[in-house]
C-alpha cells in the first residue's frame, strides 16, 4: 500500500465572505469562472477551465462520475453535449438528478452543483453541432458511445468509411446526440483556506425562486 498521508499543501490564495457575494449563484459562478480563466491564462498548466465532472446514478445502482466540457451557462442552467444512448444518457433518462463539480486547483476553488438534467431543444443541439469541426461531427456519428467494440482499428476503419461517405457533404446531427441543460437547485462554492478552515457557501433554491445562502463548516 502506498502511503499518501504526507501529500499536503496550504491554501492561502483567496477568501469567500458573505459580504462579497451576489444574491444569485450564477453571478458568483460567472465571476469565479472568469477569474480562474484569467489566472490560467498566466499559468503553464494548460487546464480547461470549462472541464467539469458529471455524476449520475447508473442503471446498475452505482454512482458514476466522468469529466465533460461545459459549453454554455446562464440563469437557466449549465449545458453540455453527449450521446443520449451513452451510459450517462441512459442514466439521466432514468434519473435526471445529477451533480456537476468543478475543481480549479490553481485557484484553490471548487464548485458543486446539484440539479435536474433535461434535454435541450433540437434547435440548440443543431446549432452547437453545426459549429463543431468536421472531425468532431464525424466522431459523434461513428461512435456508439459506451458500447463494447472489438478494437481501436474497428473504430478508425469506420471513421475512414464515413469520411468517404461524407466527402463534400453536410454532416447532420444524429438524433441520438445532443445537449442537456442542468437546472440547479443547490450550488456550493468552496474556497481553500489555511489550516483546512476552508470557506464554504451554499446557495439553495427556495420555492419562491429566490436563493438562500448559508455558510457550512469545513
From TrEMBL:
Its EC number is 1.4.3.5. Pathway: Cofactor metabolism; pyridoxal 5'-phosphate salvage; pyridoxal 5'-phosphate from pyridoxamine 5'-phosphate: step 1/1; Cofactor metabolism; pyridoxal 5'-phosphate salvage; pyridoxal 5'-phosphate from pyridoxine 5'-phosphate: step 1/1. Gene3D superfamilies: Electron Transport, Fmn-binding Protein, Chain A. Binds 1 FMN per subunit. Keywords: Flavoprotein, FMN, Oxidoreductase, Pyridoxine biosynthesis. Transmembrane segments: none annotated. FMN binds at residues 66-71, 81-82, 88, 110, 145-146, 190, 200. It comes from the Bacteria. It catalyses: pyridoxamine 5'-phosphate + O2 + H2O = pyridoxal 5'-phosphate + H2O2 + NH4(+); pyridoxine 5'-phosphate + O2 = pyridoxal 5'-phosphate + H2O2. Its cofactor is FMN. GO terms for molecular function: pyridoxamine phosphate oxidase activity. Residues 48-163 form the Pyridoxamine 5'-phosphate oxidase N-terminal domain. Residues 177-218 form the Pyridoxine 5'-phosphate oxidase dimerisation C-terminal domain. Substrate binds at residues 71, 128, 132, 136, 196-198. Belongs to the pyridoxamine 5'-phosphate oxidase family. Catalyzes the oxidation of either pyridoxine 5'-phosphate (PNP) or pyridoxamine 5'-phosphate (PMP) into pyridoxal 5'-phosphate (PLP). PANTHER family: PYRIDOXINE-5'-PHOSPHATE OXIDASE, PYRIDOXINE-5-PHOSPHATE OXIDASE. Homodimer. This is Pyridoxine/pyridoxamine 5'-phosphate oxidase. The gene is pdxH.
Amino acid at each position: 500500500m502506498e502511503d499518501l498521508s504526507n501529500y499536503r499543501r496550504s491554501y492561502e490564495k483567496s477568501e469567500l465572505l458573505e459580504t462579497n457575494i451576489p444574491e444569485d449563484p450564477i453571478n458568483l459562478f460567472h465571476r469565479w469562472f472568469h477569474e480562474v480563466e484569467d489566472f490560467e491564462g498566466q499559468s503553464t498548466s494548460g487546464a480547461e477551465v470549462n472541464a467539469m465532472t458529471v455524476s449520475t446514478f447508473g442503471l446498475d445502482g452505482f454512482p458514476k462520475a466522468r469529466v465533460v466540457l461545459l459549453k454554455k451557462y446562464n440563469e437557466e442552467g449549465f449545458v453540455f453535449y453527449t450521446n443520449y444512448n451513452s451510459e450517462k444518457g441512459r442514466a439521466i433518462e432514468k434519473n435526471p438528478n445529477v451533480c456537476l463539480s468543478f475543481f480549479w486547483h490553481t485557484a484553490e476553488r471548487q464548485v458543486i452543483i446539484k440539479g435536474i438534467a433535461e434535454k435541450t431543444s433540437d434547435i440548440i443541439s443543431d446549432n452547437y453541432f453545426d459549429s463543431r469541426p468536421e472531425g468532431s461531427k464525424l466522431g459523434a456519428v461513428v461512435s456508439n458511445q459506451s458500447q463494447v467494440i472489438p478494437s481501436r482499428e474497428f473504430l478508425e476503419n469506420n471513421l475512414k468509411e464515413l469520411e468517404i461517405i461524407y466527402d463534400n457533404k453536410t454532416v447532420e446531427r444524429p438524433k441520438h446526440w445532443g445537449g442537456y441543460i442542468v437546472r440547479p437547485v443547490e450550488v456550493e462554492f468552496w474556497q481553500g483556506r489555511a489550516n483546512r478552515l476552508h470557506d464554504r457557501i451554499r446557495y439553495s433554491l427556495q420555492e419562491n425562486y429566490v436563493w438562500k445562502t448559508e455558510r457550512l463548516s469545513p
